[in-house]
Write a structure and sequence with these properties.
Length: 246
């Protein structure tokens, strides 16, 4: 059965109910601050999946009867929380490298099998692996950690991870705000299709933006509708040169 917040797992339901009570108990400001706090805590090892935080925040927003503009602000806060929390394993990998895996707690999280998989993905796909890993709960932290050890720049990491966060975070929050306790069920059944469709939209938008940015500017037009003076003089010069060569 679903709990009050829609989580049917015995392990997730009490944590989700507690987080939802914290987020919804003191208004919009505490909701945003709590969402930011819990998402950063996830990067520090807080034992809760990010999806749980998103859905709890969205469900709390529905109880507080927030406006659409406040929902938009909550989504922005969620994205910032993701980037801040995910930066923790990346920066740890940059400063400490593979030696950090000698610690037992991290060794359990980043097993040799996961590290080997992530390394093979980076060799094949490069920094695009970060974007894909945003949607794979078991590989997020190993991927973000290995990204730093394999020389990915921090701004590249933020860009790839941010694009994924712009899909996963607002989708989960808005679904929970609109659908209430049934949002988790919807995501469980259709998450892959929803995120894939949104990812395609984002990638096409980026492609069109880059195509438009790199396209040459149109030639200037004179007020009379013909070519501009510099182009006209160039054409006259070319015509004169053609006459001489005849």
């Amino acid at each position: 059965m679903y709990s009050e917040t829609g989580f049917e797992s015995e392990g997730e339901a009490p944590v989700a109910d507690w987080i939802q009570q914290v987020l919804a108990s003191h208004g919009f400001v505490i909701l945003c601050g709590g969402t930011l706090f819990f998402l950063i805590a996830c990067g520090l090892g807080f034992p809760a999946p990010e999806e749980l935080i998103f859905l709890s925040a969205g469900f709390s927003a529905s109880q507080l009867d927030l406006s659409r503009s406040e929902i938009a602000i909550l989504c922005i806060v969620g994205v910032l929380g993701i980037l801040a929390g995910d930066s923790v394993p990346f920066l740890l990998g940059r400063h400490y490298g593979m030696s950090l895996l000698n610690r037992p707690r991290l060794a359990k999280l980043m097993t040799p099998e996961r590290i080997s998989r992530v390394q093979s993905y980076f060799r094949r796909w490069g920094a695009r692996t970060i974007f894909v890993a945003r949607f794979l709960a078991g590989l997020r932290i190993p991927t973000f950690f290995m990204a730093a050890t394999m020389g990915v720049r921090y701004r590249t990491f933020l860009l790839c991870n941010g694009l994924g966060a712009l899909i996963s975070c607002p989708t989960s929050i808005v679904l929970a705000w609109y659908c209430g306790p049934y949002a988790k069920h919807i995501l469980h059944k259709s998450r892959g299709y929803i995120f894939a469709a949104l990812a395609i939209v984002v990638l096409i938008s980026i492609y069109e933006w880059r195509k438009h940015r790199n396209s040459p500017p149109p030639p200037p037009v004179s007020p009379s509708g013909g070519t501009s003076a510099p182009n006209a003089s160039k054409q006259a010069s070319d015509a004169g040169h053609a006459e001489v060569t005849r």
